[in-house]
Design a protein that fits this description.
The chain is of the alpha/beta class. The chain contains 13 helices and 16 strands. The strands form three sheets. Strands 9-8-7-3-2-1-11-10 form an eight-stranded parallel sheet, with helices on one face. A five-stranded antiparallel sheet has the order 12-13-14-16-15. A hairpin with a 7-residue loop joins strand 12 and strand 13.
Length: 547
Amino acid sequence: MQDPHWWRQAAVYQIYPRSFADSNGDGIGDLKGITSRIPYLTSLGVDAVWLSPFYPSALADGGYDVDDYRDVDPKLGTLEDFDEMVAALHAAGIKLVADIVPNHTSNRHEWFQEALASPKGSAARNRYIFHDGKGPDGSEPPSDWDSVFGGPAWERTEDGQWYMHIFAREQPDLNWDNREVRDDFLKTLRFWSDRGVDGFRVDVAHALTKDMTEPLPSKAELGPEGGNNQGKHPFWDRDEVHEVFAEWRQVFNEYTPPRTAVAEAWVHADRRARYASPEGLGQAFNFDLLKADWNPGQFRDIITKNLGEATSSGASSTWVFSNHDVVRHATRYGLPPVGEDSADSEDGQDGSAWLMSGGREPALDHALGERRARAVSQLMLALPGSAYLYQGEELGLHEVADIPDEDRQDPTFFRNKGVDVGRDGCRVPLPWTRDGDSFGFGFKGAHLPQPEWFGEYAVEVQEADPASNLGFYRRALALRRELQGEEDFAWAEEPSADVLHFTRPNGWHSVTNFGSAPVDLPEGTVLLSSSPLEDGRLPADTTAWLV
């Protein structure tokens, strides 16, 4: 019988399909490419794959603008290809978590096209959020709200009404007060669950339900997205969203084992537990470590708080350092800290200034970044809860900062020129071989340009070197599976504030040295260290596991 709790301490590998493996040479990764690389995933030792959107899309937002929720983008394959991929993953003992995007459709979705062709007040328009404009002729938007991607959050249609889009104008927001919308998504959840999907990653889970009661507040009156707005913000983290997820949970529980879900919810930490409740989605992403600087105090506080939240909610915590939306952590940890005097210090080093400079300033210490990235990844893999890995981090890949403007694809670049260069740098297709037009990604080019230095990080190169970053990840994931027991956790007191030392069941110790000088290790057998020990001592920027 399958374990219904497999997800609680799973190692989940995120695949951005268009940038993983290209089977037909069109420069775009596809489902057959993923299937062909399942032996690689097996050798890596992950428990599940999280597949970013693979639905038909114009790619106004990297696939998060969905034309049809129950089909595969023809550029990526067919439903038959999807079924073959799922069967091959399951045969290899790997679960599949599918990305689902419920806040908005694309503007090419048949519902939205019907809405544009229908009159004001029609049932078709009621699936979305249409409002009359302000001013004598309705030529001003219903509110002064900004889109997350820059510019206004409203777009005017030919007949004079306006529709809301929190993100790109190609992503009109759905009206989750509409029963038809809710029922259609229940149908979608069953459609993919019936095809073998084991769980769902829920995009922008905190934005579905909205209060559009007139008069709409001004943007000056709105609280921040991640603030504790007590469920009163008009579109972020409203309490009513949990009614939606309670219905989803009923669908998940129709299956054996129950389907899982994890919420992408950028909410205040005090509000995250409801998304992760057993009556709701079951898990919610904890992005706090992703924002942490190289600071042991920050790490300790974040780990303590999030494990406490998980215990109180009955969920398991989630841990992540890189994904498709952020600068790769090998790069972040190779950049100078933002400093205690910075207004952004609470968010740590996010790499945004470095990206804006084209990767020139501040100076990036590649080796230090890779060393620290291995250390924190090993620390993460020792924590109770689910560990989410992003494709390429096992290779030690850095962010690609110098993508020419004409090759960029992310809408945030085009809508915020001079402010945000976008997320293309972490979405560059993976290098599989040292040479070739696309370093083995396909047999021709790649949809985003790969830098020359990618060849030295290729899978082919690292598989020939047992001391490589890939070799380290494989050993860490294999050991994690052997050592893992109950979700118990305890801090061990250390004489140095630079050291984080905790214990897990069965005598498993994890020790991380955030300081600049080597430190003594506790008694025991060292099973793995992220960098070589120095005369039996734990060097700076290194994690070791002992029993």
